[in-house]
Design brief:
With 167 residues, the protein is mainly alpha-helical. Helices cover 34% and strands 8% of the residues. Strands 2-1-3 form a 3-stranded mixed beta sheet, with no helix packed on it.
């Protein structure tokens, strides 16, 4: 996908989030979070097999084997399941919400530039916590994704390269 398409895709996600305010009531935050994580769509970058056209839904949201190569390095969609070793199992709901809406990890580092947290920053607090509740409700899946890799480092798995236009 050309890099020039990414702002358009992120705009569409933001519009989807805006319209979620008019959706019917859900039984609770976990169901609402599942709905939001599906329409955003978190699965695209965080579920194995998605970029090959065959998402492995038995390992949904457990991290991707395909990374994005950017000028800043190569980044893989991490494991979002509550696995304590390879996922978000040690993250609090507040830390997950900060990552989604502020682009900051619990250790203070910024998320990879490919993560469109800027678009999710407009999400309501209730929606962000609903997504966190949903992620914490998933079965833990042990899946260590590759990387991240700095500029010039060789990636160990598949990569999609974001190439700037020729001058």
């Amino acid at each position: 996908m050309p890099a020039r398409c990414l702002p358009t895709i992120h705009f569409v996600f933001a519009i989807c989030l805006f319209y979620t305010a008019t959706t019917p009531c859900f039984a609770g935050p976990v169901e609402r979070g599942k709905y939001l994580a599906t329409i955003i769509p978190c699965n695209d970058c965080h579920t194995p097999g998605t970029f090959f056209g065959k998402p492995d839904l038995t390992r949904a949201l457990s991290g991707s084997e395909v990374g994005f190569e950017l000028p800043a390095g190569t980044f893989y969609g991490p494991n979002l399941t509550p696995d304590k070793e390879t996922g978000l199992g040690n993250w609090s709901a507040d830390e997950i919400v900060a990552a989604i809406t502020k682009g900051v990890r619990p250790d203070g580092r910024e998320l990879a530039p490919i993560m469109p947290w800027h678009w999710f920053a407009v999400m309501t607090k209730d929606d962000a916590y609903a997504i966190a509740a949903y992620l914490k409700s998933l079965p833990p899946v042990k899946n260590k994704v590759p990387g991240p890799f700095g500029p010039g480092e060789k990636a160990t798995s598949f990569v999609m390269k974001i190439v700037p236009p020729a001058k």
